[in-house]
């Protein structure tokens, strides 16, 4: 998503690069062309297809009961997953940045694991663990817990896929900040919790918010892992991405693109909000750094 | 890493922990503050066994080498921090806190800088804010880790005299860490020379320079 920043950097007049005007123009053309072809065009198509039969058809598709269930389920999953991963991310980043312990490198590697494992495999892991034949499946069934083909399974798979986002935003920042300020707070009489709330959180709040945004966007958009554990039960366990696929496969193009436009909109809002945050963040830092 | 540390500091004394880098002087300072724990041994503040006290209970004023000012707070908020984080029943009123902050800004010769952020200050000013913040909690003892380490030579000299003056005015028991023997000799009432985790000699600057107890001390001061 940060590719959007490339052309502005190249166009900046302060950038006294040694390339000739022709080379510069070519670079800009390539970057812009690439962006148009792979980002702007698809986005435009999503919206144009969604509204291809007018606003009424768009609204009908949006208010369809299966669509509404899919939207509600997606929001529910995000509401469960994002707070969990925000908490986990802060805890993991704290542990990694502030302490030395055995297995620290292993933890760092593990946090990155979801980024390198195919989401389908991630979903399968939960099916294997909690399915009827799984290790924990009989135990869950005995306690009346429906994990696979139900909300818990979908939430778990999404937690797995999205857990690097917050942690990865925070770890480098917290490592760079060190723990001197927290130590200062402790010597001044603050409890550990108070030091965390008054010193650590304010120092990382923008990175945390940014990580939460990314985590949320991915949690709502996740397809692969959720597809495996959800069972695709219409009006019950289909999230927005799964519903989009079903509608598309049934040649209900307008409905498919209508729901897809919600996800696209989410991406745009996330991007706009992120840009706003960066602007605020840089602005605040500059105000403080002046002089 | 530290062995054979036996050091008694009188109330109101200004003591320097002097030694090469890696000798354990900062570790000793952090142990006194409660930021690190010794595997064995006892630490006493007067009659109290400080070994059993948490870092918060010890009420030491610690000035970090890099100052560790809270970068998202104004200078005034930094200085007030130790008072504002107190539990409600022990917290001074807002008016009292403001008065105390103004007093300290004044004492540290930082008038009118209360609304600035740490990034807007010079190194010497930051150092004085860190000192003011540490003194706001009326510490039992003031601990300074390489207090002049990050400053250029000229500011260093000025602040040295100034710190001595502040010390005489407040009478706070003060321990500071340095690797600069001139600094230790000029500033401190007594100097403890550390080497490889052991105290080689403790004495007044004059005693140490006139009668170095070990070959290491003689060499280090040369």
Keywords for this entry:
heterodimer, A: 291 residues, mainly alpha, 14 helices, globular, disordered N terminus, B: 222 residues, alpha/beta, six-stranded mixed β-sheet, two-stranded antiparallel sheet
Query: Distance between the terminal alpha carbons of chain B, to the nearest Å?
Result: 26 Å
Q: Which two chains have the most extensive interface, and how many residues on each?
A: A-B, 20 and 28 residues
Q: Using DSSP, what is the number of strands of chain B?
A: 8
Low-confidence stretches of chain A: 1-8
Number of helices of chain A: 14
E-strand count of chain A? 0
Give helix and strand order of chain B, one letter per element, not per position: EHEEHEHHHEHEHEEHH
Describe the biggest sheet of chain B? Answer: 6 strands, mixed
Average residue pLDDT of chain B: 91
Q: Which oligomerization state do the chains in this entry correspond to?
A: heterodimer
Shape descriptor of chain B reads: globular
Q: Level of helix content of chain B?
A: 40-55%
Structural class by sheet pairing and helices of chain B: alpha/beta
Strands of the largest sheet of chain B, in order across it? 4-5-6-1-7-8
Q: Number of helix segments of chain B?
A: 9
Order of helices and strands of chain A: HHHHHHHHHHHHHH
Mean pLDDT of chain A: 87
Strand content of chain B: 15-25%
Biggest pleated-sheet summary of chain A: none
What is the CA-CA span between the terminal residues of chain A?
34 Å
Question: Could you walk me through the main structural features you see in this protein, from its secondary elements to its overall organization?
Answer:
The complex is a heterodimer of chains A (291) and B (222). Chain A has 291 residues and is an all-alpha fold. In chain A, 79% of the residues lie in helices and 0% in strands. Chain B has 222 residues and is of the alpha/beta class. Helices cover 40% and strands 16% of the residues of chain B. In chain B, helix 3 packs parallel to helix 5. The longest helix of chain B is centred in the C-terminal third of the chain and has 18 residues. The radius of gyration of chain B is 18 Å and the shape is globular. Chain B starts with 13 loop residues before the first strand and ends with a helix. The interface between A and B is medium-sized, with 20 and 28 residues.
